[in-house]
Amino acid sequence: MASEPLRLLAQDDGDLAVISAALQDALSKIGDITWEPKAKRLTLAFNRYRWEAGGKGKGGERIRSALQLGGVLSVQARKLRRDAKGAVVELLSITFEPGVAPGGVILFNFAGGGDLRAEVECIDAILADVSEPWRTSRTPGHAD
């Protein structure tokens, strides 16, 4: 199922919720998470499940995607081993906790209880697909 690559911009918590939905069940390696303090930039590369491609039943598609946050003041990780560069994590959701407007914390929740907290000046996020999609036989599932 060919479709245009996804390109999303988030400037408020509603926009961020759309990006969170697009990245639900995305896979990343710890080594694909890059924090650049001087540039105030956090970049995460994912193998994103293409929910919008309508993959139901047996399999669907994944695509390589990148999420970049600007205006990042600090980053904290919990239950994510930074030295395990090859460890794979599965993203469950991205949420925003308001602070002093327009800033706050963008929280990445991963399966297994790990999370990443990015304190931001404001919500400034870009999600872009950066590869061609490929077939996968595994459709992410969730317990009810």
Keywords for this entry:
144 residues, mainly beta, six-stranded antiparallel β-sheet, 1 helix, 11 strands
Question: Can you give a write-up of this model?
Answer:
8% of the residues lie in helices and 49% in strands. The strands form two sheets. Strands 1, 3, 4, 5, 10 and 11 form a six-stranded antiparallel β-sheet that branches. Strands 2-7-8-9-6 form a five-stranded antiparallel β-sheet. It is mainly β and 144 residues long. The longest helix has 11 residues, at 13-23. The chain is built from one helix and eleven strands; from the N terminus they run E-H-E-E-E-E-E-E-E-E-E-E. The protein starts with 6 loop residues before the first strand and ends in an 8-residue tail after the last strand.
Count of helical regions: 1
General form? globular
The average pLDDT value, as a whole number, equals: 93
Question: Which consecutive residue ranges, at least 5 long each, have pLDDT under 50?
Answer: none
Order of helices and strands: EHEEEEEEEEEE
Helix content: under 10%
